[in-house]
Design brief:
Length: 302
């Protein structure tokens, strides 16, 4: 009997010790550097997994240290990461053709594209697309302290003119902007070829006006190109809304010329207002995008 108790005790000890080793190993794994971005900012796997829920890879890749310090461990971050769903509306008619009722069904992108009978509505974060490019805006919110706005631009047809393009963000209210809460990037052929922070000479921080812009010299060559700008605002305002814009230079523009503008909210028209009419005439005047996030009611950017 005594021998059996000793054996049972040994088994219990081994089980508890093994469990402890397993938990410790998991904790140590979470404390290791899992990812280092282009600015040298390090993230553990737990932090990276938390951020990738609501931000894309390129945005995380260009976070500043201060942005990471504020956001990486915040598990209350709320957003849709640009989640796009396709909703098909089906209609039931009576023998006379009168509508009895309608219902919505989420379908795949393939089903939506092949559907010719019933209307399909695209739901996701706000975008505006032309033949040449697509601009998108998204907002991620902490439950209490921050609102993070990201504007991205994807070229659908590579541009002929490569000069200083401008991408900008304008919250609907004025905030004092911390330059350490600004990051941006330019990506060509799947690689980030240039990253920017708030201290870059390419950034225009209109703090009193509550907006920020980034002038980017487009590189030559390549078969694909995209860019992005992110701004973290310290506010708990809810709902919170913001605007984004991208202006392509169709003629040669210097860096200095590209930075002379104001950011003005005027509906969905272009929020980037160049103060020099000659400079303004060199840009394509693509319309802006805007969205609002309602944290209290769990309504993502729309």
């Amino acid at each position: 009997m005594k021998k059996r108790k000793i054996i049972i005790f040994i088994f219990i000890f081994i089980f508890v010790f093994s469990s402890f080793i397993s938990v410790s190993a998991k904790e140590n794994e979470n404390e290791k550097t899992f990812y280092t971005n282009v600015n040298g900012v390090q993230f553990t796997k737990k932090q990276y997994d938390n951020l990738i829920r609501v931000f894309n890879e390129d945005t995380i890749a260009t976070f500043t240290q201060e942005m990471a310090d504020v956001l990486a461990d915040d598990e209350t971050l709320f957003g849709n990461k640009g989640k796009v769903t396709y909703i098909r509306t089906d209609t039931i008619l009576d023998p006379l053709g009168n509508i009895l009722f309608q219902y919505d069904t989420e379908v795949s992108k393939e089903e939506a594209e092949s559907n010719s009978q019933n209307p399909v509505v695209l739901r996701g974060y706000p975008t505006h697309q032309t033949t040449y490019k697509k601009i998108t805006i998204d907002i991620t919110a902490s439950w209490s302290t921050t609102r993070t706005i990201t504007v991205t631009l994807e070229w659908l047809t590579m541009p002929a003119t490569r000069s200083h393009d401008v991408i900008a963000i304008k919250p609907n209210k004025s905030y004092t902007i911390n330059i350490n809460n600004i990051s941006g990037y330019l990506k060509k052929d799947g690689t980030i070829v240039q990253s920017y922070t708030g201290s870059s000479s390419n950034v225009r921080n209109i703090s009193g006006n509550g907006g920020v812009g980034l002038s980017m010299p487009l590189p030559t060559g390549g078969t694909s190109m995209s860019s992005g700008l992110t701004l973290v605002v310290n506010t708990s305002l809810d709902p919170f809304d913001a605007y984004g814009s991208y202006q392509h230079a169709q003629q040669s523009v210097t860096l200095a010329q590209s930075k002379v503008y104001n950011l003005t909210v005027n509906g969905t028209t272009n929020i980037i207002q160049f103060t020099n009419s000659t400079t303004a005439g060199k840009y394509d005047n693509m319309r802006s995008v805007n969205c609002s996030i309602d944290v209290a009611n769990l309504i993502p950017c729309s």
